[in-house]
Design brief:
257 residues, 3 domains, five-stranded mixed beta sheet, three-stranded parallel beta sheet, 45% helix, globular, DUF4130, DNA_repair_put, DUF4130 domain-containing protein
Length: 257
């Protein structure tokens, strides 16, 4: 067994796929950035990301898949599901070994698993577009903290760039410790450690605009006023707004003191 170590990026994984074929490596497992101690007796192969190799793999896939099937590979990769790299690799092997389009062959485990992973990521990115709540800092930066199950920031970047083109903003994924920052012209990926107490009144008082507390409480009052108690449906509410998102939703955080 060979443990293939790559830099956790999609381009890095594609490079790994190219080199697995190039070197004829067999029985591979993937690990991000460092050797996994779970495989003590495996050989180790380190991948250096090479965009030209990644593009060659992408070109081959694009020729054999529909646009949706091609996009599903990236979306599935972003799902962060356990062993998704191995699943995708087996899916890619099936694609390259077949003379026909295989993406609708749902009897194949890897085809089905990739479609499910892509669907999960798509569903999560759709929810994030609705559940991002910005706060305004003293230096006129709108920031939001999210903690999605999937790595959806690359998928929602364009949406927020178009919607908030006249504002500086940062959306930070606290689970993966990175964010996307928009400076009124371009977006960029930033790595930073964010304050874990970002929803506390003390933290907000230190960094937020003087009127931010007022507007947050105003939003909570509006949210409360439009809810009709007699028509309350907790099950449906949780279906549309799962509880795992609540800690970063303004309307679900008690009024600031």
């Amino acid at each position: 067994m060979t443990q293939v170590i790559y830099d956790s990026t999609f381009e890095g994984w594609l490079t790994a796929v190219f080199e697995i074929y190039e070197l004829k490596l067999a029985d591979v497992v993937f690990a991000k950035n460092e050797v996994s101690n779970a495989l003590l007796f495996s050989e180790t192969y380190f991948v250096t990301t090479d965009i030209s190799k990644a593009n060659r793999v992408l070109h081959g896939l694009k020729q054999r898949l529909s646009p949706e099937g091609f996009d599903n590979i990236y979306r599935a990769f972003l799902s962060d599901l356990d062993k998704i790299e191995e699943t995708l690799f087996q899916f890619v092997k099936y694609i390259f070994a077949s003379s026909v389009n295989i993406e609708d062959d749902l009897a194949n485990t890897f085809v089905l698993d990739v479609q499910r992973a892509a669907h999960l990521t798509g569903k999560e990115s759709h929810r994030m577009k609705a559940f991002v709540r910005f706060k305004l800092t003293k230096d006129n930066l709108y920031y939001a903290i999210v903690e999605p199950d999937c790595d959806v920031l690359p998928l929602i970047e364009k949406h927020f760039k178009n919607r908030y083109a006249d504002q500086r903003w940062l959306i930070y994924d606290s689970k993966r410790k990175y964010g996307i920052y928009y400076d009124l012209e371009d977006t960029s990926t930033v790595q930073l450690q964010f304050n874990a107490e970002s929803t506390s009144s003390k933290f907000l008082a230190e960094i937020c605009d003087d009127n931010e507390e007022f507007f947050q409480n105003l939003w909570r009052q509006y949210f409360s006023s439009v809810n009709i108690e007699s028509r309350k449906n907790t099950k449906l509410h949780l279906q549309h707004m799962p509880k795992r998102y609540w800690k970063n939703l303004t309307e679900k955080i008690p009024n600031l003191k």
